[in-house]
């Protein structure tokens, strides 16, 4: 009897092993998605390219997600060419898992140069033309049936000729606060407080200040252009940084449930953000903050006073100030005991530590200053 039971158990083990072996032999076959892949962003009629703004974002390419019917992650590769047939191509960015990628004016200028365009009015080379892009979706590392290409799209570019772009004030990207926890409320053109653009990275922004959140408030969003809701940024359904241009619909607001001080950072290059409480209880309170220097009407002797905002006494602004070519600094109480400068024009951060003078070009500006972190931004007014 014992021998019979042993033989029966052994037989079951063999059958089980064979079944597992057959399961192990099961394979998935990747197949192209019949719905395909295509760009979803709306292109401009033309893209003016000025070397003075080379770090600005020119276009963020957005495409639909796709799959190949296999349990492997789909990756994307944005490709560019100077010809529609893609006889020669280059990889703008590869190994992407997100369905969007931004390119700068500098990248388009380099590609335009490969296409034989230039901005020198003295040459016969044209300063207008088209640059071509497509996106590849794939699984694994191989090509063939495991990849799929989108239709090609063309960007019409115009290289600003040197004589047109010389001199003047460089135009930089901006971001402004809007929402029921901000000074402007949900009005998109209400002297909205700007974020302070990083002096070294035009795609990174910072703001430390008050947000008047409650359990009843919706929160805040960001605008690239005042009065322009299509330029808004917020959060997607997963809580990640996104925009109307990427989503094709309005993003959700950044939620704020308490009234207090917070530090916000936004990185449009990495598509990341942070939003953390900030302890401002020990921050000094100033009665005046002024800007002065040889670029101002009062020179180094008379401060041009900024005004603190009613919403947040640590954020100061002066509107429509005329500056000449030269340098400026900020200081408190018309004294040099507390003063701020910076090594980067138009935006940056001072540290109240014998900072360098800020270089400026002649023009009319709205100027904002934050005494909590010494950040400043000069916004040219056209």
TrEMBL record:
MF (Gene Ontology): starch binding
Keywords recorded for this protein, A-Z: Lipoprotein, Signal
InterPro entries for this protein: Ig-like_fold, SusE
Domain called SusE outer membrane protein: residue spans: 23-136
Any one annotated GO CC term: outer membrane
Signal peptide stretch: 1-19
Record has Acyltransferase as a keyword: no
Protein's UniProt name: Starch utilization lipoprotein
